[in-house]
Amino acid sequence: MIKEKLQVGTMELDGRIVMPPLGTYKCTEDGKVTDEILAHYAARAQNPHVSMIITEHSYIALQGKAKARQLSVSSDDDLEGLQKLVTVIHDSGAKAMCQLNHAGSAALSEVSGQQAVAPSPVILPTKPAMGDDTEPAELSQPQIRQIVRWFAEAAVRAVQAGYDAVEIHSAHAYLLNQFYSPLTNKRTDVYGGSLDNRLRIHREVIAAVREAVGTAYPVAIRLGGCDYTEGGSTIEDAVYAAKVFEEAGVDLIDVSGGMCRYTVPGRTEPGYFRDLSEAVKRAVALPVLLTGGVKTRDDAEKLLQEGAADLIGVGRALFKDAAWETAGGAQTQ
Length: 333
Ligand SMILES: Cc1cc2nc3c(=O)[nH]c(=O)nc-3n(C[C@H](O)[C@H](O)[C@H](O)COP(=O)(O)O)c2cc1C
Known about the structure:
Layout: E1 6-8, E2 11-13, E3 17-19, H1 35-45, E4 50-59, E5 71-72, H2 79-90, E6 95-101, H3 109-112, E7 117-118, E8 137-138, H4 141-161, E9 165-170, H5 175-180, H6 195-198, H7 200-213, E10 219-226, H8 235-248, E11 252-257, H9 274-283, E12 288-291, H10 297-305, E13 311-313, H11 316-320
Parallel strand pairs: 3-4, 3-13, 4-5, 4-6, 6-9, 7-8, 9-10, 10-11, 11-12, 12-13
Antiparallel strand pairs: 1-2
Helix pairs in contact: 1-2, 2-4, 4-7, 8-9
């Protein structure tokens, strides 16, 4: 099945293996594309198994910049570099999807030059280890509206740069995931409390992006569906969220972890988020992308055959070895 075509909205993929977003942090200090990053993506796009590359999370505004040398989609000045990035991916026939992100409370003040913002003033457990233990500021409703606009403006830049699709990042403890998870969203206004309220910003972002890019342009969302921890988001929440996103007009649901980020403690088997992808797949008619722990083509084939997902992401294996599972590739067991 890995060679079978798949329709994602108006976009046709010519295989089922996708390179998910993996931050290289090889940009300039202000987020511009470098020759180093072009070479990285060109090599991976040449892998014949890869039908689409989702480029690493790019910040939609300085306020949401997670790390030094992160890719930017926050300014029209980024367009020239982004066009080159898309071109090196297209040169090998692969599709390119742009992941749009606001890091929220995960943004490091020393990188963004400003206080981090979040749904609620909750310090992420991972943050002090990164040398920043400052409390994020709670977002006001006008600030939330500004962030929604930034997502839409960034999506337009992705279109202008020639990307085939965009992905809204709502996983791995970044801003939209912070709204979704009850561990980080303690708001008492319309953006907090019930799950439906915690998904309000997602509906607004999807609507704004849709309006900006038009009905025909493929839009995905990466859902950090479950926190796998006491008091956190659950698989049932993810099923509800996926239905909300389908209704709101996305074309693809890309599942991953929430506050646990992209791994689950104690689980390393291929497709370790399949409990999530299977539950979501049963609930929506949209294609579902599953990533995590896939090391070989056989792993991917088995997950597809078993109906765990429609697309399989191969992250670290391709990151380490651009020639993964080809005659020239190293053994990536
Ligand atoms: C170094 C590194 C950087 C990553 N950067 C991103 C990112 O920018 N956006 C994102 O959604 N996930 C990111 N991830 C998560 C991957 O997309 C993927 O979900 C994860 O590596 C698990 O898949 P794998 O077992 O195939 O590697 C990153 C993971 C790693 C190891």
